[in-house]
């Protein structure tokens, strides 16, 4: 049955990532320019966290919401570091896992993306949208 297939068939491998030392303003640019909602944070190839668009909005709007892009970038970069807003312990799934494994993890938690790892190396990302698209093709 298809749900026992490897997640490698539905995961995204062309990922936009950031490094812990990058300015937080680069997240604003990523979320503004790309149709993505999850940005893994890496150190080299090692996954060290993940930032969602909701995580970013929580810190960027609130009291700073009236700023233009440049003003907001300046405030963000002086107020936060990447590790301040990223989830430092994201739930991951090994690249040897099945689509069923991913569905169970996503279905039993309140997040919508699973970084796919080979050991500590980030190799992909599976989202709830990937699973919905897979189910729509059955």
TrEMBL record:
Superkingdom of origin organism = Bacteria
Q: Which residues form the CBS domain?
A: 11-69, 86-138
InterPro entries listed in its UniProt record = CBS_dom, CBS_dom_sf, Diverse_CBS-Domain
Record keywords = CBS domain
Q: Does the keyword Chaperone apply?
A: no
What this protein is called in its record is Inosine 5'-monophosphate dehydrogenase
Cited Pfam families? CBS
Q: Which organism is it from?
A: Mariniblastus fucicola
